[in-house]
Q: What sequence folds into this?
């Protein structure tokens, strides 16, 4: 397998999940601005969407979209499946929320939104993190088992911290718990990312 990624981007969730699953893969960095890969290829010619992640399977089939890729990795490693009757469906439900509601809420922060749009986005992210904080059961989103959804939420929390959005208190311990997993440490190191992110103390300004 080969994962096309950008350091610290949402593709980090796939790298963490591959490591958790013990699945070997090659990794090719993509410059999201120039769309050049580290081997000098034009990424848009490889993936017309131009976004990461993209996972190329050993038979050459390419899979895009976080929800599909993370579900695929979970299918390859059954330990990821939440241990409840609707396990796989609950996992897809959570991945979909993370993708369409939380991940999407960040966009104005990264893509040149106005100050008002950025503040609105910060509140949207904070609200969605609050909702998710209520879903952490025991250690992780689905109880004692770490799943691909935790890998995705970890990356979103990392972004929130970088953007100065204070995560709900319940998610601070969760963040540190996930960050201390060997798969996560390894993935951060491989992407040249710091493990110690200071947690912001300043609340968001009041919305007008
Ligand atoms: N719909 C895609 C979106 C992935 C996405 O937003 N990737 C970002 C990095 S986190 C990206 O590649 N942005 C650059 C671009 O889309 O040109 C998915 O869920 O996988």
A:
């Amino acid at each position: 397998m080969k994962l096309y990624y950008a350091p610290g981007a949402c593709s980090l969730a796939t790298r963490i999940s591959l490591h958790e699953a013990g699945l070997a893969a090659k990794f090719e960095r993509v410059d999201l601005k120039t769309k050049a890969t580290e081997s000098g290829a034009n990424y848009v010619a490889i993936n017309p969407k131009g976004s990461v992640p993209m996972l190329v399977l050993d038979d050459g089939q390419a899979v895009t979209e976080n929800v599909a890729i993370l579900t695929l990795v979970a299918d390859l490693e059954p330990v990821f499946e939440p241990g409840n009757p609707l396990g796989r469906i609950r996992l897809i439900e959570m991945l979909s929320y993370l993708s369409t509601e939380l991940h999407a809420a960040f966009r104005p922060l990264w893509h040149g939104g106005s100050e008002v749009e950025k503040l609105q986005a910060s509140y949207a992210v904070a609200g969605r993190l609050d909702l998710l904080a209520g879903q952490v059961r025991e250690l992780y989103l689905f109880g004692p088992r770490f799943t691909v959804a935790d890998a995705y939420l970890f990356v979103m929390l990392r972004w929130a911290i970088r953007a100065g959005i204070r995560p709900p208190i319940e998610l601070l311990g969760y963040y540190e718990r996930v960050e201390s997993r060997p798969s996560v440490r390894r993935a951060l190191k491989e992407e040249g990312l710091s493990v110690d992110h200071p947690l912001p103390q300043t609340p968001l300004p009041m919305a007008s």
Notes: Residues 2-76 form a domain with the Glutaredoxin fold (CATH 3.40.30.10). The chain has two domains: 2-76, 81-181.
